[in-house]
Write a structure and sequence with these properties.
By secondary structure, this protein is an alpha+beta fold. The chain contains 1 helix and 9 strands; from the N terminus they run H-E-E-E-E-E-E-E-E-E. The strands form 2 sheets. It has a 6-stranded antiparallel sheet with strand order 1-9-8-4-3-2, with no helix packed on it. The protein has a 3-stranded antiparallel sheet with strand order 5-6-7, with no helix packed on it. The longest helix has 23 residues.
């Protein structure tokens, strides 16, 4: 059997298997989360400074330069790698391939075109805790 004949016998099933990874890598990724951060703890001190961020529970939580709390999945939609951080331009960025995302999760370049899962970040009325939830 020649190569061409062999490939024809594989049919659509093989094509689906071979393209599944691409489809998975090109979509948003990030599961549901629901946790609360105590902003009085030293471990969460980065969230007291505008532009500061921390990585916890599979998420990136940040205080943007305007004073708004934002949160996103740590998993980049470009290739499913754990590399998202918050940059000084109020964007989520992947350290692996440079994908860029807005605070709303919209892709800002080709590598970020799959979007990013964004979570709600709600500050308590006393300002001492931050609940991150959604997905």
């Amino acid at each position: 059997m020649e190569r061409r004949e062999f490939l024809e016998t594989l049919g659509l099933g093989a094509a689906f298997v071979l393209t599944t990874n691409c489809f998975q890598a090109c979509t948003k990724s990030g599961g549901a989360v629901d946790f609360t951060l105590d902003l009085t703890q030293t471990a969460n001190a980065a969230l007291k400074t505008k532009g500061g961020y921390l990585v916890t529970n599979g998420t990136v939580v940040a205080l943007d330069t305007t004073g708004k709390y934002v949160a996103a999945t740590l998993t980049c939609s470009h290739e499913g790698r754990l590399g998202i951080f918050f940059n000084t331009s109020n964007q989520f960025q992947c350290s692996v391939h440079g994908a860029l995302y807005s605070e709303s999760g919209a892709g800002l370049n080709q590598n970020g075109s799959g979007g990013l899962t964004i979570y709600a970040a709600d500050l308590s009325s006393d300002g001492k805790s931050l609940r991150v939830h959604g997905g």
